[in-house]
Amino acid sequence: MPAEPGVPSVTPGLTTDGESAAVDDGASLSLVSGDAAYRLQRRIGLIPAKGLGIGRRLVILPLVAWLPMAIWAALNHRALAGAVQEPLLSHYGIHVRCLVAIPLLLVAEALAQGVMPKLIPYFVTSGLVPADCRDRFRQILSNILVLRDRWLPWIVILGVAFALSTIDSFRQDIHEVAWAASDAPAGLRLGFGGWWYLLVVRPLYVCLILTWVWRLVLLAILFWRVSGLPLSLVPTHPDRAGGLAFVERFAVVFSPVLLAHSAVLSASWAHSVIYHGVEITALRAEMVAAAILLVVVFALPYLSFVRALGHAKREAELEYGVLAGRHGRLVREKWILGKQVGEPPVLDAPELGPVADMVGLYGAVAGMRGLPLGKRGLAMIVLPVVVPMLLVAAIQVPVKDLLMKVLGTLV
Description:
Elements: E1 11-14, E2 20-23, H1 36-43, H2 54-75, H3 92-119, H4 122-125, H5 134-148, H6 152-169, E3 181-184, E4 187-190, H7 192-227, H8 251-276, H9 280-299, H10 306-335, H11 345-348, H12 355-366, H13 375-393, H14 399-410
Antiparallel strand pairs: 1-2, 3-4
Helix pairs in contact: 2-3, 2-7, 3-7, 3-8, 5-7, 6-7, 8-9, 8-13, 9-13, 10-12
């Protein structure tokens, strides 16, 4: 039965809980709301009946992670310099995990909830998905919902997080919890604060990071499947990406995630520089490798459209080349050679215009990008990764010299 005018068509999906999920052209699709982590947090009251409860979680989760550890360290004279050589205060990575990274990962959820419902429907409203492919597009969205709501990825995430913590708990040389350790006849023993960090703080942070990796995988699957549709790309589109440049706006969702992880890494490096005398030059390779890895991983979903854009550009160069050649020959024959060419429609077509406009059309096709990720999208991925690392480098390198080196590499 056809949909009524003004009412969006929907395709029923089925979640792993057996609940039906109505999928329209993407306005109801969310990377966050409805997944297993969301449902669990709603059951325990962290997420209210309406909304994501970002405000309450921004207060509760960081304090639950950081406060018990900080109170124990203060009561046992391990928070400030004195009783131990490197107190809790000196381990910047711990504080950044709790008070900076975790809130940033929650802010990313709010961004995802606001961005996704606006951008996904644009595949349809922009005309990129032809009318005869909309049912296939809705089925793709429905399948993404099913993947999002499965429990298996979350079991894997929890398993990895606690496995890492369990492995660390058997080590005797965990530098990050040296402030909570005491020498004993049986060897190094951790106090409550150290165990809290290993069994609560680190698993919580790793779970949140892996959650966003899973959401990045979901976005990559979505892009890959959509790119397999016969998209109606426009080679002369002013965005230079056939009309697909809007997908770079998805990068804003992952900017806080990149900033969070880069900040944690940089905080650990800062501790090494300040308390262990490590030279920035000794960390250069590690920083560059980490930056490249983060940028590449979070740019991977956009590679899904490379094949479609490349094919569209190659075809358009031939098609518009034929049109430009025909137009140019007729102009030459009529105005240079003085021949009678009649009144061919191609010379009077207002959408083609004079020769200069025709050249502009072909130039637009030739300048079409092979990746729907421009300077703005790259900036949203690269800057959150690089800025915390530059701050660490600024500990030893003067800011002016540092900026000049960065500008030199860019120019």
